[in-house]
Amino acid sequence: MLKKSRVKFKSQEIIPFPDTKMMRNLLCVHVSVSGNELFLMTSHLESTRGHAKERINQLKMVLKKIQEAPESATIIFAGDTNLRDQEVTKCGGLPNNILDVWEFLGKPKHCQYTWDTQMNSNLGIPATCKLRFDRIFFRAAAGDGHIIPRSLDLLGLEKLDCGRFPSDHWGLLCNLDVIL
Q1: What is the CATH number of the domain that holds 36?
Q2: Is residue 171 part of a domain?
Q3: pTM surpassing 0.90?
Q4: At a CB cut-off of 8 Å and minimum separation 6, what does 155 contact?
Q5: Is 1 a domain residue?
Q6: Residue 2 included in any domain
Q7: Which of 68, 83, 98, 176 is the residue whose CA sits 20 to 30 A from 140?
Q8: How many CB atoms lie under 10 A from the CB of residue 84?
């Protein structure tokens, strides 16, 4: 969602992942915030351990799209990547100009795990699994005017009136500073 009074919408694009078995795609939105060019991207990459190869291919497509954006623009990708750390390593890691926001902010422990079956009972999984499936990638703009990640927190930690959490994942809230 974009607040029209502060964000100027420029364009949007939906890029289908060609070999997805789960109808997944990449959504890209080009906006301007206080004169700063910004590309917002999101996706839900292929789920489960058995689809690691396709998930890695999808990550490569995301990283390629980030790199193709104009250098004058800030890029923020956020989504349910379902990535394991070794999968990021397997695809060659993140390019030097793309940051994992959680790592950039010093790997804060309070928001490390976005999928935690011990704390989140929605799926009823008896085993304890803690993974960082949800991630935010960031590429800073070259030139004047910058947007910088400032903090990261988890959302959705409280059960709803129905006794369930909003999702089986915790959400990520990233606060950004706009430096003019």
Answers
A1: 3.60.10.10
A2: yes
A3: yes
A4: 170, 171, 172, 173
A5: no
A6: no
A7: 83
A8: 16
Total domains present in the chain: 1
Grade residue 143 by pLDDT with cuts at 50, 70 and 90. confident
DSSP assignment string, 27-91: EEEEEEETTEEEEEEEEBPPPSGGGHHHHHHHHHHHHHHHHHS-TTSEEEEEEE----HHHHHHT
Q: Are 78 and 136 in contact (CB under 8 A)?
A: yes
Active site residue 153: no
CA dist., res. 144 & res. 153, Å (int): 28
Structure tokens at 96: 């030097």
Please give the structure tokens belonging to residue 102: 């959680």
Tell me which residue range forms the domain holding 77.
7-179
Contact 63, 81 (CB under 8 A): no
